[in-house]
Write a structure and sequence with these properties.
Elements lengths: L2 H61 L2 H12 L7 H15 L3 E6 L4 E5 L10 H7 L5 E2 L3 E2 L7 E10 L8 E9 L5 H6 L9 E8 L2 E4 L14 E3 L5 H6 L4 E6 L5 E8 L6 E7 H59 L1 H18 L9 H33 L7 E4 H18 L3 E5 L5 E4 L1 H17 L6 E9 L2 E8 L6 H4 L23 H11 L4 E6 L3 E9 L3
Parallel strand pairs: 14-16
Antiparallel strand pairs: 1-2, 1-6, 3-5, 4-5, 5-6, 7-8, 7-12, 8-9, 10-11, 11-12, 13-15, 16-17, 17-19, 18-19
Helix pairs in contact: 1-7, 7-9, 8-9, 10-11, 11-13
Bound molecules: adenosine-5'-diphosphate.
Adenosine-5'-diphosphate (ADP) binds next to helix 11 and helix 13.
Length: about 550
């Protein structure tokens, strides 16, 4: 695959990974925020319910103070006797200061105010529906409403019904109103937010005709409690709350800004609570995350690209070096190695011709001629070997080498090579022995395996002194065919063994009779055996032995 394509692929993968990671983080952050909203909303609802219950309990306590009730009833029925006022004031004062109410108003059943504590210049007045609500027989809390005596001040009334004490003929006598200033404890309960946030807020609302009215101070609109109304709108969380939507709700708040909200009804009241936070605030950590992911992804892509380019360059340099070494080797063989056997052949052929020139058969020294002919034969065999190595090697390098494996009989192949090599071995008085089974079939390229064995055998002959031994064996071992060529020759130094198969190191040393080589043989051995999926091993002890072996996969 070309480098730009790899880099493009890595970039796409990294970007894809970044997007997936970002999405998972985004979901996590949004989920966390939504949970937080839900938890805060339910905590607040609990507190509001508790707050209402505490006030209703105050009403219970007050309605059970019998002496006070008796005095109040006296006051109502005896048409406001002034002598009762100081004592009533005294009791009301204690109650107000103990329970933190703003004022107490005594109203009769017709809605007329009979007494106000603390005394005030303005007397509250009530319309028909308020009087009807007040005459409800239960202790209850009124809705939030503007105060009669202070402009813009909002109150809630705790309404305590007053009855005559006589159980049987219980008669409604009036109502005691304890006004509560919601700024003191009620609004803080709603408005406080437990975590640091720029846009979070909670507010309570109720329906009023086709609108929703906001009952407390808003974070982004000042002095609007009980004054600010908005017509119902589908995407307005407040209007969704009063029309029955509960839980998470995404929409636009009273400023028209997208928010995520949590909607709840406040039990036993006409109120609904909206806890909301701007979407932008929720998503703001994501901007940092995008920046962070982008930087990491960029650095990662840069690192990978640089590494890929570096590795590619290294590989290319190695390839070019090998190419150079191949070229140099080729020229050196053509110009030098190939020359020397022919120089020998030519030289000894000339001597032969000179020896024979002008002589008749009786003058001819047959032994001399035989010797020179033998030298010519071994030099030409050398040249043939070299040429066949060179041909194979050039085919290997030019990509023209055809790998044609077939089922072959390894036994007869080894026998053939041994027969071929025997003459050269006998010339050096080297004895070749074999240890091969009667049948050994392999699936391989016949020409290549033949060249491999020929090279190993001719090396053994070359590097073994006269009188030495060469042993060739073949056997099946652990699902492999192992062929081994072992000689009692000069051996190989340990430090050279690792470089024998490397063209750039090009190890070649002269044989025991100063035979020249090219260093190509073992490189071909290694290449051909690798093509078959096998391996080549060398073991040697200088001055004692060399053992070359190769493996081939067995066929069954
Ligand atoms: P060449 O024999 O033409 O030099 P090879 O690639 O066949 O090239 O062998 C490379 C070198 O490995 C030889 O020159 C020799 O130094 C060493 N070598 C190979 N086979 C043997 C062996 N049987 N005994 C000792 N040395 C060997």
């Amino acid at each position: 695959m070309p480098i730009p394509a790899i880099i493009l692929l890595v970039t796409i993968l990294v970007i894809l990974g970044g997007v997936l990671f970002f999405n998972s983080q985004k979901r996590k952050i949004v989920d966390e925020k939504q949970n937080e909203l839900a938890v805060i909303a339910s905590l607040k609802i609990d507190n509001i319910v508790k707050w209402r219950m505490e006030h209703l309990r105050d009403g219970e306590i007050l309605s059970n103070i019998i002496p006070l009730n008796r005095q109040i009833l006296n006051f109502l029925f005896k048409d406001n006797p002034p002598e009762l006022v100081p004592e009533l004031y005294q009791r009301m004062k204690i109650f107000i200061s103990n329970y933190d109410y703003h004022s107490i108003v005594l109203v009769d059943t017709s809605g007329s105010v009979r007494l106000v504590y603390p005394a005030s210049e303005t007397t509250p007045s009530f319309n028909a529906s308020q009087i009807k609500e007040m005459n409800n027989p239960d202790i209850r809390l009124s809705d939030l409403h503007f105060s009669d005596d202070e402009p813009d001040v909002i109150h809630i009334d705790l309404q305590i019904p007053l009855f005559t004490a006589a159980e049987k003929y219980r008669v409604r006598a009036g109502t005691l109103l304890l006004t509560i200033d919601p700024r003191k404890s009620f609004y803080p309960l709603i408005q406080s937010w437990p975590t640091q946030s720029k846009s979070s807020e909670t507010y309570i609302v109720r329906a009023e005709d086709d609108s929703v009215i906001f009952l407390n101070e808003l974070r982004h609109k000042k002095n609007k409690a009980l004054k600010f109304k908005m017509p119902f709108r589908d995407d307005l969380p407040a209007s969704a709350a009063v029309t029955g939507h509960k839980g998470l709700f995404e929409g636009k708040d009273y400023r028209g800004i997208p928010v995520i909200s949590y909607l709840t009804k406040i039990p036993d009241s006409p109120w609904f609570m909206v806890a909301k936070v701007d979407k932008q605030e929720i998503y703001s950590p994501l901007n940092e995350l995008i920046l962070f992911i982008s930087i990491i992804a960029f650095l990662f892509i840069l690192l990978i690209s640089v590494s890929i380019i570096y590795l590619w360059r290294r590989q290319r340099i190695r390839y070019l070096r090998e190419l150079n070494a191949t070229r140099d080797k080729f020229f050196s063989i053509i110009s030098h190695d190939l020359r020397s056997p022919f120089t020998g052949i030519n030289g000894f052929a000339s001597i032969l011709v000179e020896d024979l020139e002008g002589k008749d058969l009786t003058d001819i020294n047959v032994d001399e001629i035989k010797k020179h002919a033998g030298i010519i034969k071994s030099a030409s065999q050398n040249a043939v070997d070299l040429l066949s190595n060179l041909t194979e090697w050039s085919r290997l390098n030019s990509g023209r080498l055809a790998f044609k494996p077939e089922e072959i009989d390894l036994v007869s192949l080894i026998n053939g090579v041994v027969d071929l090599m025997n003459t050269a071995a006998l010339q050096k008085s080297i004895i070749i022995s074999k240890d091969i089974p009667s049948v050994l079939n392999i699936y391989a390229d016949k020409e290549m395996i033949s060249l491999v064995i020929r090279n190993l055998m001719s090396n053994s002959i070359k590097f073994t002194a006269p009188g030495g031994n060469i042993h060739i064996s073949g056997l099946e071992k652990d699902n492999d065919i192992v062929v081994e060529v072992c000689d009692t020759g000069i051996g190989i130094k340990k430090e050279i063994i690792g470089n024998l198969f490397r063209l750039d190191e090009n190890i070649t040393t002269p044989g025991t009779q100063r035979e020249h080589g090219t260093g190509l043989g073992l490189i071909l051995v290694k290449e051909f055996i690798s093509l078959h999926g096998g391996q080549v091993h060398v073991e040697s002890e200088p001055g004692k032995f060399s053992r070359f072996s190769f493996t081939l996969p067995v066929i069954h």
